[in-house]
Amino acid sequence: MKQFGKLIIITGATVSGKDTVVAALLKAHPSWKKVVTTTTRPIRPGEIDGEDYYFISVEAFQEIKEKNEFLETVEYAGNNYGTTKSTLDPVFQGHNLIWRIDASRSSEINKLFDHCFDKETAQNIKANTKVIYLKLPDDATRQKHFLKRGMEKSDIAKRIKQDEIDWDLGKFENIVINYDGQLNKTIEEVERIINYSCSTI
């Protein structure tokens, strides 16, 4: 019987520490891979093509889209972002794969798989997928994180409202509280969920 890897989706509320948790998981498990998104935005200093994003032209992005090779796409701040179907191939090759996406997309992930893959492929990827939602312990901690990012009050209000909408739509089963200064505890809980849930598939 073919052994599939696990697709670990890390999502959560704004400023909940998603990128930090993903980085810690990848450091703890060097053999795990990360979903790398394709974008048309210019590369920034310090970024590495193929590691942070796949940086391509608008024309190349449109060509991939026309070939129906994207799993999903989104436009943000005038730039295109997309995740190709082939980025999930490591799961079918037995590798664990981490995908960091926003809560609105993760809440619709099964529908996305059903729409983009044949029935057997969709069933296999869903059976080996676990969505983990990160949140901060309280509003005071969250406000501190917002202010640390230098966000305006109007932007903070919009993010909080969107998070509430995503939370209601997602009905997330696996929730991890990310306490300040307790990253190791957060990682342990995330790994417990991954190992327990996927071992019972």
CATH architecture tag of the domain at 7-34 and 95-199:
3-Layer(aba) Sandwich
Shape: globular
How far the N terminus sits from the C terminus, by CA atoms, comes to: 14 Å
Low-pLDDT stretches are none
- From the 3D structure, determine the CATH topology of the domain at 7-34 and 95-199: Rossmann fold
Number of strands: 9
Determine the structural class based on helices, strands and strand pairing. alpha/beta
Helix share of residues? 40-55%
Q: Largest beta sheet: what is the strand line-up?
A: 2-7-1-8-9
Can you give the mean pLDDT?
91
Strand content: 15-25%
CATH class of the domain at 7-34 and 95-199: Alpha Beta
Biggest sheet statistics: 5 strands, parallel
How many individual helices? 9
- The CATH superfamily of the domain at 7-34 and 95-199 is P-loop containing nucleotide triphosphate hydrolases
Order of helices and strands: EHEEEHEEHEHHHEHHEH
